[in-house]
Amino acid sequence: MVVNGEGIQINCMTQKVNLEEHKIKISDEVVETSRRRRREVDEEKRRGRKEDEEERSRRKVERSRRRGELERWIKRRRAAREEEEERSRRK
Predict the structure, then answer these.
(1) What's the DSSP call for residue 3?
(2) pTM of the predicted model, to two decimals?
(3) What does the pLDDT profile of the chain (91 residues) look like in tens digits?
(4) For the region Disordered, what residue ranges are annotated (predicted)?
């Protein structure tokens, strides 16, 4: 039972202050959670980029190796063709 109006007002003010403190705590937690999540996402992206770079490097090496094999094959074929042409000219 409330005796005077001021008591109610003080009680309301106290509740408002507590509510504001609660909101601040919640917003701080939300901000910290979002910051933590953003750091995690950034770290995942960084890790992903590193893996992507490694994969690109592997593909580049593989392409280079294949290109070298192809060039050697072409040289052998060209040499074989020229040798065949030389034989046919001699006959």
Answers:
(1) -
(2) 0.41
(3) 444 444 444 455 556 666 677 677 777 888 888 889 899 988 988 888 888 888 999 999 999 999 999 999 999 999 999 999 998 888 6
(4) 21-69
Q: What DSSP character marks residue 13?
A: H
Question: Token pair of 73, please?
Answer: 């094959």
Other C-beta atoms lying within 10 Å of the C-beta of residue 41: 10
Q: For residues 44 and 42, what is the distance between their CA atoms, to the nearest angstrom? A: 5
How far apart (Å, rounded) are the C-alpha atoms in residues 39 and 85? 68
C-alpha–C-alpha distance, residues 2 and 5, integer Å: 7
For residue 66, give both structure tokens: 């294949």
Structural tokens at position 83: 């040798």
Residue in this structure with the two tokens 């999540």, named with its chain if needed: 37
